[in-house]
Structure formats: structure tokens, C-alpha cells
Amino acid sequence: MTEPLITTPLRERAAQALGDRFLHEALDIATTRFIALRRDAFGDFPEGEALRDRARAIKEATLQRLDAHLETLVANIERLGGHVHFATTAEEAREIVLDIARRTGARMAVKSKSMATEEIHLNDALQAIGVTPVETDLGEYIIQLAHERPSHIIAPAIHKTKGQVAELFSRELRRPGLPADPEVLTKIAREELRQKFLTADLGITGANFAVADTGTVVLVTNEGNGRMVTSLPRVHVAVMGVEKVIPSMTDLAVFLAILAKSATGQKLSVYTTLVQGPRRPGELEGPDEFHLVLLDNGRVAQLAGPLRESLYCLRCGACLNVCPVYRQIGGHAYGYTYPGPIGILLTAMLNGPASVRDLSHASSLCGACADACPVRIDIPRMLIELRREVNVRGIAPRSERIVFKALARLLRSPTLYRLAARIGRAAQRPFVSDGRIRALPSFFGEWTKTRDLPSIAARTFQERWRDLS
Amino acid sequence: MSVSAAAGATPRVALMITCLADMFYPEVGERIVRLLRRLGVEVTLPTGQTCCGLPLFNSGYHDEAAAVAARTVTIFRDAEAVIVPSGSCAWMVKHEYPGLLRGRAEAADAERLAARTWEFSQFLVRRLGRTTFESDVEGPLAYHDSCHLLRGLHEGATPRTLLNNLSGAAVVPLPGSDECCGFGGSFSVRLPEVSTSILERKLANLEASGARCLVACDAGCLMQIRGGLARRNSPLRALHLAEVLKS
User: Fold this and answer.
1) Which end is more exposed in chain B, N or C (fewer Cβ atoms within 10 Å of the end residue's Cβ)?
2) Which residues on chain B are in Cβ contact (under 8 Å) with A392?
3) CA angle centred on A99, ends A96 and A101, rounded to 5°
4) How far apart are the first and last CA of chain B?
5) Which pLDDT band holds residue A6 (cuts at 50, 70, 90)?
6) Three-class secondary structure assignment of B53-72
7) Are the CB atoms for B100 and B60 separated by under 8 Å?
């Protein structure tokens, strides 16, 4: 269980985000670009659709025997000289990493981009025991400097414009007057990070996959920092959700063929790093110690739960880019570690249904997410299922339940339905001009604040029917 | 496409008018009836119709939605074919009714209804094989894909076929035509600011398209898009496909 990052109501958070002109601009540019890149990547790849089906089938089959695959993975990593830890909760996972840090006398940890370590709020915990965490993915580096959280699963600083990054670097790195030039800014980040790589004792990563029958942890990255993090420090710790295990290298090939295309529109990411345990005798690079932390944190319970399909997720971020809600409000407004459509499901998985009372409604159910998902996760269906759970458990606001029960009653009775039309016609009279309604009181005002509402027709279609026959 | 089905006896259809068209857009229903009759289709209107139950279903009130679905299934039990003027309601009947009513007395009827239900444009093109009509409005027109028709029923072709074959009005592409208009049922009032912000994107795309009229096959999208255009006193219009085809 992790705490919400923000406690103001969703609607306020969303409205705040909508008012941020820079956020709007940054999101629009980035998501529009991601959408086009993904479309082009799959457009040039006719095998793509069949591979998506195949990937989905692999995920499903793997989850059916998750325990067996995890056992194989553990045995193979240990055979290679690595250590595997199992964490039931976020707190356990943090403790495992902190123990390793303490035992190895670590003072600085370099990190490759990882949502799993965000999920367990690892950076704060490291800081608290005197280990300085340094994010080395450029986007993560930016938001660490800004004391923020990632707002996108693969593009954590998507919400920032280059101008904002230039200002941030100028201020935080004490290099006044930097230009809003990505190339210059990247070069500066690289200089700053080079020294950190060389001094860090601990390298911390997530994992995109772990191949059970070879004991290989796979990292898909673009900047080369992942490779530095896994090879330079004395100790490498990878934190990974249990659902990310896959049986074999053949399966890996299927996922690699669609992951980068879905995420960034690349055929493959620039780096695909395969880590097999610690450095062996005779090898020139690699850590002395290798640890894999397998994280449950609510996942295992969903193997038999309504959110099972969300365990297929590859964390590519495609559903965020196409989501009309995400594109308007960005990731922070969701209020938890994982934003976007899949993020709502993961939030429910990690924090329980009460956490998504409002969040489960942060979707128009347009279905663009399910369409873009490389493993075709039916996100809208699970959002509806979450809404149902919120109602059934009595978490939904009472007023809302009363409204919907009343609506249900009305729709079951043609007499009441006709009566409602008559009452509505009478009640709307003071508000109608030219057949349109520009302002209504109370709840209905939520619509009319920004949109006209059509008036109920003088005669409904069913009332006109006799004239048509 | 099954055009051969057009041959044979006079097709008979029952019209599922849907709550939004019944209450707010009765003229859409009237045009559909006139058009179908001109094409030799016999149209009936089973009595006692209310709503398909989609608002209840999407908000997670599934027992309540099932009760409404059971009524609807019973009302339409004897229909040879059912025609629906909104993609989302058609999706509800075709896609969700069987699951909602599984294990109930109406289960078999729900399956049959799902198989016999057509969204308006699909019925014209896929069942009747009619693709050529005159336009009743001045172009250029631009088509907006409603989410449930496009991604729920996987239908982006039949409305475009009808529009592209129209005589008397040009059709221009709508940038981001497959993007949501921001309606989303109760979403539009739960998060009205977000809903409106999504709508603004749609309206900007409509303006950029050069079209004078947006065409859609869903009363929900039309309520949202028309509501936005009217509030901005825009000269542009948003119409249901049935309002474009000369009846």
C-alpha cells in the first residue's frame, strides 16, 4: 500500500492541470508525436497485429503458471551467483534494498529509470539512511532536480517544456543563462552524471522482463545510462513486479518486436541490456553482487481478481498517449504513481478500490487505450468493473447512488419515463430560448457552464409515432 | 459486405429510438422512418421503450442495467431486425446485453437480439446494400467517428461509404476523426472541465477541416458537439447522418 501523492479532489487537480498553459503545450506536442510515431511503426510492420496476439497469449499462459516460472527464474539467477528476494509489500521491498545498501556500505546509488522503485517510494527511503539516490535517465534526472514525480510511464518529464528545463538546470546546477536547447542541456546532464556513475557504489534498476529459463534480467532503454548503472557500481539491485517474468528468450523476441514500437515508435530501443548475474571470473565489467527483488504489492492477489488482465501490462505508455483525458490533464493530476488509463487499474491494484472512487471515472471510456495496448488489455471494461466494485462496496458517494437508483427505476417503467419527459418539459420552460438551454441550476449547471443543452422536444418521437403511421 | 441479403421479401425492422433521440432529437427518428419506408422497408416501433441502460452499465450499476436490458429484450423479442440510430446504444445491445443477462430467463432472447441489431448506417449498407443517396445539406461535410461505433463495433466504413457516395455535398477529412469528443455520458458532468477541454480539441479540428457540417452516428456525441458549437455561436453545424441523407 502506497499513499496518494496528492490529496486534493480529482476534479480540482484536473482543473488545475487544465489551467497550466505550459503543461498543455508540452503534453500536446509530446503525445501527438508519440501517436504518430507509433502509428507509423506499426504501419511499416504487417506482422505487428499477429505478434500482439502472440504476446498476449504468452502473458496469459505465463500467469497461469506464474509460480513455476518464478521458481525457474530464481533457480537460474542463483545458479549464476545472484540473489533473489521476495517482497510482499512495498515496505518489505524498501527494507530489502536498504539492507543491501547498509550491508555494502553504500553512500550513493545511481538509478536507471524504474516505475517499480517509484511505486515503493525508494528514493526517500534511501535518502533517509544517508544514501544519495541519483536518477540517471535524463527525464528522471530533470524531475529529481525539480523535486517532482514522473508524470508518464516512459517519459517522466513529458510535462516540462524545454524552456522550463533550461530554467531548472540554470537554477539547480548553478549555470545561469542556459539556452532552451535540448542538445546543450543533455550535454550538461551528461557531464554532471559522469562523475556520479564513477563514484556510486550501488546501481538500482527496474526490469522490463526477466527470462526464467536463462535467469536473464532485461532492460530496455535509450540513453545508455542503464548499461552504466548495471556495470559500474559494485552492487546491482533490480526491482521488478512478479508479473514481468517470461519463460524463454523466444518469448522475449516477441515482446521486443512490439514494445518499442508501442512506446516510442522505434523498431527497437537504442539499448537492450541483458543482465545475467554478477561479474564472473575473467569478465572485465559488471558488479560484484547482483540482487533481484521480486515485488508482489497486490499483484499476486489479482491473479484470481478482476484486474488480472492488467498484469499483462508492459509499461509502454501507449495508452497514456492516446487517452483524451491524459492528453488534457497529464500524469500528476491522477495523484498516484501510475497515471493514465492503465494507471487507474494499477492504482486500484496497489491501493484498493477506495483509491479509485473518483479516479475510475477519469475516462470517457472511448476505448483508444485498448486499441493502442500492445497486448490488447481491455482497460475500459476493467474501469467499468472498478466502478461497479466501488458501488457494490458502498464506497461511491451516497448522493450518486440515489441518483442512479432513481434513474434505474425510471428506465424500468415507461409510465415513469413518460412522466419524467412531461415534468422535464415543464421544468425547463424558464430556461429555454430558441430551443436551447444556456444555463441550468445545481447539478445540471455542470453541463451548461460550457455547453448548451438541447431542450426536451415538445413531443417526443414516441408521441409523434402515431402521426407517422 | 452482405448485399445479397437485400434481395427477397420486404425487410421489416423495429426501430429502437433510444432515449436521447426520443427526447431531444425526434426529428432524427422521423427522418429514419421516412428514409427506410422510401427504400421499401416496413418500420415498426415497439411500445414502451425507454433507454438501453448504457448510462447505468457504464457507471457500474450492473444489476440495474440488467433489469433495464431484460425489459428491452422482451419488448424487441419478435423483431426480425432492430435498427438503432446511435453507435453506443447499438454496442450496448450487441456487446453487453448477452453478458448482462447470462443465466437469466431472457438470456437466449438477448443473444438473438444482439445478433439482429444494426446501427443505422450499417443497416443501410450491409443489410440493404444501399449506398447512394442525395444530400439534404450543403457541404463540405466531415465525419466524426463515435467511439463505440468505431472501436466497439469496429465500424468506420459504412458511414464513410454513405458520405463519400453522396450527391450534392463534398466530404473533407476531419483531423483526429477517431478521437473522442469528450462526451462519455456521466463523464461529461463528473469532470466537466476535462470533458470541455477534449471537446475544444474536436471543435478546433472541425474548424481546421474546412467543413461546414460535422456528421456523426451517435446522439451522445451530437449533444456534446452541438452544445459546444451553439455556446460559441459557431456557424458550423453538427448533424446525425440521417439528417444528411435525403429521405
Assistant:
1) N
2) 60
3) 110
4) 23
5) low
6) CHHHHHCCCHHHHHHHHHHH
7) no
**Which structural domain, as residue segments, surrounds residue B234?**
141-244
Q: Which residues 36-65 of B are in CB contact (within 8 Å) with A?
A: 45, 47-51, 53, 55-62, 64-65
* Mean pLDDT of all residues belonging to chain A: 96
d(CA A107, CA A103): 11
Considering the entire predicted model, what is its pTM? 0.95
Closest CA to A448 of A433, A437, A456: A437
Decide: residue A276, CB within 10 A, 0-12 exposed, 13-18 middle, 19+ buried.
middle
Closest residue of chain A to B42, computed from CA coordinates: A469
Contacts of A204 (CB under 8 A, 6+ apart): A97, A109, A110, A111, A112, A114, A117, A122, A133, A229, A236, A237, A238, A239
The reported pLDDT for the residue numbered B8 is 58
Query: What's the pLDDT tens digit per position in A410-461?
Result: 999 999 999 999 999 999 999 998 888 999 988 889 999 999 999 999 999 9
CA-nearest residue of chain A to B180? Answer: A366
**Segment 175-234 of chain B within 8 Å of chain A by CB:** 178-180, 182-199, 201, 223-224, 226-228, 230-231
B119 has a pLDDT exceeding 90: yes
Q: Please check whether residue B159 is in contact with residue B143, taking contact to mean a CB–CB distance below 8 angstroms.
A: yes
Task: Residues A45-297: name the CATH superfamily.
Answer: NagB/RpiA/CoA transferase-like (3.40.50.10420)
Burial class (CB in 10 A: 0-12, 13-18, 19+), A469: exposed
Write the burial class of residue A16 (CB in 10 Å: 0-12 exposed, 13-18 middle, 19+ buried).
Answer: middle
A32 at interface of B, judged by CB pairs closer than 8 A: no
Q: How far is CA A366 from CA A322, A370, B80, in A?
A: 10, 9, 30
Q: Are strands A235-241 and A289-295 parallel, antiparallel or unpaired?
A: parallel
Domain match, B21 and B121 both: yes
Residue B167 one-letter amino acid: S
Nearest to A468 among B30, B186, B194 (CB): B30
Q: Which of B230, B237, B163, B216 is nearest to B21 (CA)?
A: B216
- Which residues pair with residue B43 across a beta bridge? B13
The CATH number of residue B29's host domain is 3.40.50
Distance from CA of B140 to the nearest CA of A (A): 24
Whether residues B159 and B101 share a domain: the answer is no
| CB A185 within 8 Å of CB A166 | yes
Tell me: do B119 and B193 sit in the same domain.
no
Q: How far apart are CA A395 and CA A355, in angstroms?
A: 10
Residue pLDDT, tens place only, A357-399: 999 999 999 999 999 999 999 999 999 999 999 999 999 999 9
pLDDT in tens, A71-108: 999 999 999 999 999 999 999 999 999 999 999 999 99
What is the complex's ipTM, to 2 decimals?
A: 0.95
The runs of H, that is alpha helices, within A44-114 are: 48-64, 66-79, 90-103
Distance of alpha carbon A46 from its chain centroid, rounded? 27
Q: Please report residues of A whose CB lies closer than 8 A to that of B190.
A: 11, 358, 361, 446
Residue at B150: amino acid letter: L
